[in-house]
Amino acid sequence: MEYVYGALLLHAAGQEIDEEKLKKVLTEAGVQADEARLKALVSSLKEINIEEVLKNAAAAPVAAAPA
Amino acid sequence: MEYVYGALLLHAAGQEIDEEKLKKVLTEAGVQADEARLKALVSSLKEINIEEVLKNAAAAPVAAAPA
Amino acid sequence: MEYVYGALLLHAAGQEIDEEKLKKVLTEAGVQADEARLKALVSSLKEINIEEVLKNAAAAPVAAAPA
Amino acid sequence: MEYVYGALLLHAAGQEIDEEKLKKVLTEAGVQADEARLKALVSSLKEINIEEVLKNAAAAPVAAAPA
Amino acid sequence: MEYVYGALLLHAAGQEIDEEKLKKVLTEAGVQADEARLKALVSSLKEINIEEVLKNAAAAPVAAAPA
Amino acid sequence: MEYVYGALLLHAAGQEIDEEKLKKVLTEAGVQADEARLKALVSSLKEINIEEVLKNAAAAPVAAAPA
Amino acid sequence: MRKPAQWKVELVDQVAKEISSSNVTAIVSIKGLRNKQFQDIRKSLRGEVKIRVMRGTLIKKALEKAQKKDIKGLEQFVSGQVAVVTGNIGAPVLYRRLEGTKQRAPARGGEIADHDIVVEAKETSFPPGPMISEFQKVGLQTAIEKGKIVIKKEAVLVKKGEVITPEKAKVLERLEIFPLIVGLDVLGAYEDGIIFTKESLSITPEQVAADVATAFARAKALALRATFMVPEVVPELLAKAKLEADALALAAGFLTESNVQLFILKAIREANALNA
Predict the structure, then answer these.
(1) At a CB cut-off of 8 Å and minimum separation 6, what does G4 contact?
(2) Residue C50 lies in a domain
(3) Which of A1, C21, G48, G171 is deepest in the core (most CB within 10 A)?
């Protein structure tokens, strides 16, 4: 999930998610980013309304609070 | 949520989450990290079992399935 | 269920599902396709709206997937 | 979902799911398989008990969710 | 579903389900039974414990079954 | 449940469900049909929209398993 | 200018020294705290932190004298009845320890209610007597039942934002309703050159855990939607494909050894529905 967290971080920071930026963030976190996966995620995300997905995810029962 | 995404990125990358690392990751993503929030978040994270929280969250079904 | 997965694969690939194509895919996966079954599945699928069926199946929430 | 259908096709055919086999099946179905996605799926599947997941998927409470 | 209803009728009547009996019942109901399907169902049923399925039917929901 | 399976068989075969037909099917399956039960079932089925009931059955949870 | 009293100079020097040698310094409000509670809190925190109650002007002087970078940033929190807390734990930890000392306390009158104070309808422990008129004076409906004063109807005795009058405070205390939350209320803290506001300190582990769960759910939803094959979502994708295949096989009447159960189940459900 590193790649996805990185993408979410960029999104939350108001940045556009491109391969270069995502790679830099991942590298900074100590992840050796794989070019192909970077590409796969970035191109898939371009086709998605991220805000919409996040909104629906939040609506899902995340409740399961830790004891 | 930037701080939390950054922390989870570090966690997924197998890194220990400390203020310095988190700050670097956030900065790389273009977030001007606030020292106090960094510290507060890191110290809170120390008191929770991240793996456990993630496991519980994973058990909850996510609404948004791919079309 | 090989036949059905094969049909789904062809459908997802935007291909029309006919006996020949389905047979090829199954063969590639190491399945010795039975002509009668191929025929039965292909002809039944012609009579249903696959998209509709998939949409309804997807609407069903998938619970607790093991991590 | 093509990749997932392809993987399940191989699984149902009693084959081990590796990148090469999956790629061949996808190609046969007319899908231009992306190496990164192949790799990601195959490596993810290695960490999963597919039988278990499929069994649970059938047992999972579909539709009739309590309010 | 005719074949399945016929098989369950035989089962409920305490009969063993074989191709001949199933064919007769179907014919009586006005169904022109297809040998291949008869064979497929009868041999499939040999591999499951119908009683068990009946017992579990209350607990196990059916996957998004189309009408 | 023999009577009900018999009725479902007739319905699936596109036949109208009447006492005579149902009795024949049951007899063929080795069931000694009781006139009163035949009558009761046939007359109650006349009052419901079978298609509708079957459609709902797919979605609704199974209430009580037959023993 | 008059020379400051010797005790003041010594106190300021002493506190400045304590701040200099401590990891964390916090300015806390002691408003509403009674002496007894204060002593209890001090006792429960003994060995962990030092608490100094002193005048604001002296706190500011101590902050000025302390050998800590940027500690003057704490001055903004020095106003009203405050104390200086020093210790060698992290600022967030100190905050949580101090929050943990907060207790419910009876009102004395004159305080402002921070929530609606409700008196429930219930039997009290008081026999008929002068208490009745005290209850009635503040507007409670009372009656005598089985030799006890009974409050007949639930009432909001003090609305949020209103002042708790001495009469009402007295009644509340009689009914053992403690509307105040008192303790050392952290206004701001300092650690390692960083000034923590109450807002950043109030990030709790519980909230962080909830945020982590939310972040995970979002990541999972995004990965699912992007069909980004990570182990966290692959089981769900598999399950989805399986359900789709089942549904398609059922719809197509494609019965095989591996899915005959589905058909049997469907028939059973239908029979049950029809039999109902």
Answers:
(1) none
(2) yes
(3) A1
Q: Are residues G44 and G125 in the same domain?
A: no
- Name which of A23, B55, B17, D63 is nearest G217 in CA terms: B55
Q: Between chains, do G269 and F62 touch, taking CB under 8 Å as contact?
A: yes
Q: Would you say residue C26 lies in a domain?
A: yes
**Could you tell me the pLDDT band of residue A65, with boundaries at 50, 70 and 90?**
very low
Which residues touch G134 (CB under 8 Å, ≥6 apart)?
G167, G170, G171, G174
Q: Which residue segment(s) compose the domain that C47 sits in? A: 2-56
Q: Are B50 and B56 in contact (CB under 8 A)?
A: no
> How many folded domains does chain G comprise?
3
User: Within a domain: residue B44?
Assistant: yes
In chain E, residues with a C-beta closer than 8 Å to the C-beta of F66 are 54, 57
Which residues in chain G belong to E strands, given as ranges? 24-29, 49-53, 82-87, 103-105, 117-119, 122-123, 142-145, 148-151, 155-158, 180-182, 185-191, 194-197
CATH number at residue B11: 1.10.10.1410
- DSSP class of residue G272? H
- Of G5, G3, G25, G15, the closest CA to residue G65 belongs to G15
Residue in chain G lying closest to D8 (CA): G238
The total number of structural domains that make up chain A: 1
- Check whether residue G164 and residue G29 sit in a common domain: no
Among G90, G191, G211, select the one facing B4 at the smallest CB separation.
Answer: G211
Chain D environment of A3 (Cβ under 8 Å): none
Residue G225 CA: distances (Å) to CA of A18, A53, B63, G150, G236:
18, 8, 10, 61, 11
The CATH number of the domain holding residue G39 is 3.30.70.1730
The answer to whether residue F65 sits within a structural domain is no
What is the biggest distance separating any 2 CA atoms in chain B, rounded to whole angstroms? Answer: 42
C60 lies within 8 A of chain E by CB: yes
Domain residue limits at G147: 117-178
Render each residue's pLDDT in chain F as its tens digit; 67 residues.
889 999 999 999 999 999 999 999 999 999 998 999 999 899 988 888 888 888 777 654 433 333 3
